[in-house]
Design a protein that fits this description.
By secondary structure, this protein is mainly alpha-helical. It is built from five helices and two strands; from the N terminus they run H-H-E-E-H-H-H.
């Protein structure tokens, strides 16, 4: 991603001037600079063979794929450790943009309604003999724009 941003970012930012927020521009800049000389670094030297390696500093931005890769892997491993040896299905419920705007201003109320509606829907459909005819359990995770695995954002029920 950093290579893409470095190669095409200046033209894209120019073409989208006025439509990109300062926060978005800062994220792009952080990703472009991550693990490059722009952020400084340090020299690592092996005491046995005298091999020298330059290690550049990371941006530590929560949106950076380089910086968050380890956190994402750890988050996934933690979730996998919680799984039971049974079949699982991943189902996504997405709010329409208009409701998403309302949710942004009324998070607790709207997301509570979303969790309850999603759970009731899944339980009702699964109980129907035309489908599973089963009583199910579920785990719900709220993923909002800007939340990422391992970053501590998002709610779980």
């Amino acid at each position: 991603m950093a290579d893409i941003f470095r190669r095409h970012g200046p033209a894209w930012r120019s073409a989208n001037a006025g439509r990109v927020s300062l926060a978005q521009l800062k994220v792009m800049s952080a990703i472009e600079s991550c693990r490059t000389a722009a952020l400084g670094g340090h020299v690592e030297r092996c005491e046995d063979c005298a091999h020298v390696r330059i290690a550049y500093n990371s941006c530590r931005n929560r949106h950076c794929p380089k910086c968050q890769a380890i956190a994402a892997k750890e988050w996934l491993a933690d979730r996998e450790a919680e799984l039971l040896p049974v079949p699982y299905y991943h189902v996504v419920f997405t709010l329409p943009a208009a409701i998403g705007d309302i949710a942004y201003q009324n998070k607790a109320v709207v997301y509570d309604i979303l969790f309850k509606a999603a759970a009731e829907t899944l339980i009702t459909i699964a109980a129907d003999p035309k489908h599973l005819g089963a009583r199910i359990g579920l785990t719900a995770v709220l993923h909002t724009p800007g939340s990422s695995p391992g970053a501590g954002s998002g709610a779980r029920r």
